[in-house]
Amino acid sequence: MQAFIINGPMRLAGTIRISGSKNAALPILAAALLTDEPITLHDVPPLRDITNMRALLTELGCESATQPDGSLTLTPSSTSNSHARYDIVRTMRASVCVLGPLLARRGEARVAMPGGCAIGTRPIDLHLQGLTALGAEISLEGGDVVARAQRLKGTTVFLGGPFGSTVLGTANVMSAATLAEGVTVIESAACEPEIVDLAAVLNAMGAHIRGAGTPRITIEGVSSLHGAEHRILPDRIQAGTYMLASAITAGDVRLDNCPLDSLLAVEDRFQAAGFTINRLDDTQPAGRCSITIHTGGERAGPIRLTTQPFPGYPTDLQAQMMALLTLARGNSVVTEKIFPERFLHVPELGRMGAQVFRQGPTVVISGVDRLVGAPVMASDLRASASLVLAGLAAEGKTTISRIYHLDRGYDRMDERLRALGASIQRVEEDDL
Ligand code: EPU
Question: If you measure from the C-alpha of residue 127 to the centroid of ligand 1, how many angstroms do you get, rounded to a whole number?
Fold first, then answer.
């Protein structure tokens, strides 16, 4: 296993281009199972989760190849295996994205039931409720969810749960409904930009989807889908993470290919903390721009923050914002409303001198004048990113172990931060 060693504090400066979105790419890759023609995707990020999804698709009879121009081509070739095995599903919960496409196209899907993960129990009851409403028969066999249906039938499906809608549940039901007989209406659909991107690919493949990005999505079923070409939208969570890296180091970082329009709740909290985001140009393709973050050399002011489904503040940027707030000029309050247990970073930030007090889904952060480097680790992607940010601002050496979590969601984070002036090394844990 590998670790990062960071020597701080430092001020980041330079330009970074935001990569394609992991969470948009994963269900889009799975959507290749809906057709037997090739799909070409641009801006697929080079991440461990993507490699895992490609391996799963290969097992399911869909080959993928990186082209000389960097695009990824997916070519379905066989329909004989419809089983997503536990070995793969347990390394990547997003494997559940293949459930809807397999069921709709092959009439059967067998997907190992994902277990809980470091950020809490993560049920898939809403996915199954949605597919059942479309006519699937669902059973649990030897730890696998098995879904069967001759042909799915359109209907109205409600996907709201106790914590709001479900992103991958919406992706599964929407993908499956493209090949259903008749019209499906998803009520209380997830409104995340990643769902809009998936709908754009499916429509390019010949589907008839309206309303993606709103709580009501209407899908008119078609009998088959064809090949398509698509550019994955930029990763709003990666962008937010580097915005916070710039802010916590009072840096001067420019982000290109930044999806600022899908980060308005984040921009709002930056403003509340006393920082300004400058939009430099709008000449890039729709939904993308360049930005800089202006801190005026000041520390953040204290803020209140509650995570919510889109367009609210994203849970995937809660941990990174908390790193910034550990150094704020006062007391901040953070409440996690999507994954109430998603606080693995809290005790680790405490090891670096942060004053953080958790009570259930709420954390009070009393800003301190300085963080001090320490050995830390976290078993979650975004918690690990929060520790990297804290390490950049802390005095002395921070060692972050188990960084394979970071490699799941941030491509070459060490290289990219080094290019911005950070002192960060990747080492083998055995050498520590
Ligand atoms: N939920 C249910 N039943 C379900 C599904 C979800 O109760 O059937 C609950 C969850 O337990 C949670 C809430 O609903 O409390 C929202 O979960 P959701 O289903 O929306 O999460 P997801 O689709 O499994 C995606 C992202 C996560 C991100 C969440 C929320 C991917 C691959 N994953 O997960 O990203 O946190 O939406 O925005 O798109 C990450 O990238 O670090 C990550 C965890």
Answer: 11
